[in-house]
Amino acid sequence: MAAVVPVASVSPVPLWRRAVPHVLAVLFFVLLACLYFSPIVFDGKTLAQHDITQFQGGAHEAQQYAAVMGKEALWTNSMFSGMPTYLISLHFPGDWSGYLQKALTLGLPAVVANLFLALLCGYILLVALGLRPLVAVAGAVALGFSSYNLAILAAGHNTKSMALAYAPLVLGGLLVTYRRDKWLGAVLFAVGLTLNVHVNHLQITYYLLLLAAIFVVIELVAAARAGRLPEFAKRTALLGLGAALAVGVSFGRLYTTAEYSKYSNRGPSELKSLAPTAPGQAPAPKTEDEGTGVDRDYAFQYSYGVGETITLLIPNFYGGASSMPLGTSSNLAKAGLPQEYLASMPTYWGQQSYTAGPVYMGAVVCFLFILGLFVVEKRTRYWLLAGTILSILLAWGKNFETFNYLIFDLLPGYNKFRAVSMALVIAQLAMPILGALALSRVLRPRAPLAPTLPGTKAPLPADASALLPKVLYAGAITAGLCGLAYIASFSFDFAAPIDGELTKQGFTPELLSALRADRADLLRNDVWRGLLFIGAALGVLYFHLKGQLKVVPAAAIMVLLVLVDLWGVDKRYLGENKFQSQTIAEEFQPTAADQMILQDKGLSYRVLNMQNPFNEAQTSYFHKSIGGYHGAKLRRYQDLIERQISTGNQQVLNMLNMRYLITGDAKQPVQRNPGALGNAWFVSSLKTVASPDAEMAALSAISPATEAVVDASKFPQQKAATYDIAGSSISLASYSPDVLKYRATAAHDGLAVFSEIYYADGWQAYLDGKPVPHFRVDYVLRALPVPAGSHTIEFKFEPKAYAVGNGVSLAASVVLLLVLVGGIVYVVRRKERSGDELLDAPVLA
């Protein structure tokens, strides 16, 4: 009988010691975020973000009301003559996930917090996949510093950035659930998806779920082949519960958004004809595919060029952003262009009408991604490759009509979104993840082998020997793409659509030739730059596999290479010139026109700013605006803009109570409109029409001061009528955003029309304290029958969707809190047989 050899017990590593690398990683991420945004953190500056400034303008009335009254304003009259605040500034007290977000951001300022969260969540994903901390840091840097993340912050797309930051948590939960521990994975998935949905950028969530769906399909096929379908079903059910919980926490926001979407310009128009393209022109009939969601041309306006896909590897292949600075050593400078013009030149020569910058994944990341196609296990490799390919195809938009028009028409909900180039966020997630997994596969400790003969070199470990040619193949492919781009550049003319405008503005042929030479230099310089980083990364992995570079220094160098590569390109699009000493509040200084209008202390009237009226919210900050700035205004109001306001129908502006016109003329900055009809008035006749198109057409013929028109197909109970309005009057007695009170004296039974936007789901009319029905007239306004006598009329915005949604959010938030606490307890108590933490085991082993 063989003797039993006792095995020495291994003491588990203390929890604090296992936590140290993770704490250091978090501190490193804080440092990186603060250094990148050092003007904010150390100099007290702000980031000049156009969309955030516009948001503040549109949200100002609702925010002021909430500050004074201590409750949310559910409606605002500051934009587009009135709209719900659902997609502007509304908060849901029942949704507690905001507190979790505040805890995760560590009190960092906005945008600094965005970048930190992107790094942190990427790190959590990669650690959950079993990567060692330093390699996970490299992957997190690749995820967080992808150029699109910084470019969208420069534009003010903070919610988009935050939704992207949380995406790795969702993917981490998905992977852990299917590949290892279903309970831990389900908790991570539920928390990640809750935070992702909370920030309310549904297009990013949609793309994230597409990537998740590909993974689930691949797992389903693997489970079917292995005979594990019952277990797969259990884990899928847990994820379904996590998704339901995430939706529940944000139910208030989702419910009100879903309700509003039926009425917004993201939904179909009731009109059967197109808007006229010129005043007096008859509208043309729509084609069959129009009016069912976002218009195709609108959705595909920002399509990534097929050739532009190379910017994932070479950022300045098409000249970078639409406007880029050129130095004093540029060809344009040498050609004699004055220096003050060099700070902003149209270097971009691609197909898009405008771009804030290309989507650049990083030369090192592209190299590692290609390496991952050789060395990462098949299921994960196929998933991330399929996601990347789908991402690119979707981003091509109109440049690949055969595929994308089919997807636009058939994929549920996809036709609600615009700017299809945004689909590259799928690749932005997939490529760094696969690259990090490849790096982890290469950078691992290997025991040295003894020489086979005295005086000879020790052979490479079998694993390293197998990996080395794959590393060289990946390097050769990536460098080869750069080389092909360099060679191809000599066949390009570097001409851009804007060049014709430059010629009209006085650009000489010599200057235009110099600009095109600068575009060529930008491309070729980035090719050499990319080759430098690819060569450096290849060298690190080569010397590590040769046994001449240890794991830790090799991983540290890779972190540095990824960081320097991406940081340098990011600064092109979000650099020092994007910061300002002026705060957002200081940007809203009243103009001379604003000051003149603000002297009018009337309870409510509207203002139209003729300077870009429907794409600015400066006016909304100070006044109740006919225009505004929002991507999802009411569809009926958009119809009114296209068919009446934009064609110069003064009667429509009168019925909207436009009292003041901001002209933009310094000599006469403001004009008062004597024809404004006020807050409410009695009409002498009500006309009926049989369709929305007829109602819209009637606005070109009626005088709204005395006539109103109703669509009998929508309000069949309303009949044509005439009224005696002699001696009748009505006026606004008190105003708040969602409660309007009027005093009316009717000499006879009559019909009052209100210069307020009709919105069926929420506004309730009260006559002397009793609820009464009201209806829509003049395509967008409210009307109310008023009996003879003196009355108090109130309109209150009391949407059931808000109350119901907030209650569901509160209940789900309580459940989420219990799930989160349970998950933390589970992680602390549950240990592997070795005594290590559950998270120490790799998902993809």
Automatic annotation (TrEMBL):
The keyword Membrane applies. It comes from the Bacteria. The keyword Transmembrane applies. Keywords: Membrane, Transmembrane, Transmembrane helix. Pfam families: YfhO (PF09586). Residues 274-293 are annotated as: Disordered. The chain crosses the membrane at residues 20-42, 73-92, 104-127, 134-155, 161-178, 183-199, 205-224, 236-255, 354-375, 382-399, 419-439, 471-492, 527-544, 551-569, 808-828. PANTHER family: INTEGRAL MEMBRANE PROTEIN, INTEGRAL MEMBRANE PROTEIN-RELATED. This is YfhO family protein. It comes from Hymenobacter cyanobacteriorum.
